[in-house]
Amino acid sequence: MMTMILTKFNNKIRKIDPAGVVSTFSSSTFSGPADVQFNASGELLVLESTSGTIKKISADGTTVTSVDLVDENGNAIQI
């Protein structure tokens, strides 16, 4: 089992593997990471509270895609 740690102050996501080794999960910088969840494909979904987006990171931590949750006026987008 892998443990994920959100580090809001430096906007990174760290992982701790079963052997206790700590490393950065993705080279992406996040904007106020607030919550994380793995989907069925092993991708990590990261809710960013500051930017109003959800980032999807591939299981190996390399690919990042973003979905905006607010429009240009700051209004919530229904998805």
Can you walk through the features of this model?
This protein has 79 residues and is mostly beta strands. The protein is 0% helix and 43% strand. It contains no helices and seven strands. It has strands spanning 3-7, 12-16, 22-24, 33-38, 44-48, 53-57, 64-68.
Note the gap between the termini: 31 Å
State the assembly state of the protein chains: single chain
Structural class: mainly beta
Could you tell me the mean pLDDT?
A: 82
Helical residues, percent? under 10%
Strand arrangement, largest sheet? Answer: 4-5-6-7
Estimate the global geometry from the Cα principal axes.
globular
Q: Give me the count of strands.
A: 7
Secondary-structure topology with pairs:
Layout: E1 3-7, E2 12-16, E3 22-24, E4 33-38, E5 44-48, E6 53-57, E7 64-68
Antiparallel strand pairs: 1-2, 2-3, 4-5, 5-6, 6-7
Summary?
It contains no helices and 7 strands. The protein is globular, with a radius of gyration of 13 Å. The chain has 79 residues and is mainly beta.
Question: Which features would summarize this protein structure in a list?
Answer:
7 strands, 79 residues, 0% helix, mainly beta, globular
